[in-house]
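We give the chain.
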Amino acid sequence: MTSNGVHAIPAIKEMLDVNNRLFHSSLAGISEEEAKKRIGGDTNSMNFLAGHVAVARYLMAMLSGLQVPPTLSDEYKSYNADANYDSIADLIRSWDDISARLVPALDSLSEEQLQAAPPQPFPIGNQTILNALGFLVEHESYHIGQMGFVRRALGHSAAAYQ
């Protein structure tokens, strides 16, 4: 069992903050019409990506002990061309709501909680809540990077860290 997982929480929170800024920057100025576009073949649309990372934040919140049912549907697990995804404004509201709850919840996790097994398996070696949180932050970063790419492909300026 790895000890001192609580010392990893500040780094996780820092990355959540960076991703929060990039999430908002990626969506700034994107119209609802643009948000639905798939820039090529089987790529993800901006509104799917925004919902997908918001759902991941809800999962992080639940792993952190919060009893918060996701406000977004299971349609955000994988892209579905027939799905009626939420508006950008609704997705931002969902993201902001869970983000405000998640960060304080992380501070309340004990070493024992961080080293406990997650309720579902993750594609990581050592199945702990801490490692599941780390995976989900990486997953979020990956998809927010996709949002930045889609933003540029739609003709907008690059997403910014500010």
About this structure: Residues 129-153 form the longest helix (25 residues). The mean pLDDT is 91. The domain at 5-153 is CATH 1.20.120.450 (Four Helix Bundle (Hemerythrin (Met), subunit A)).
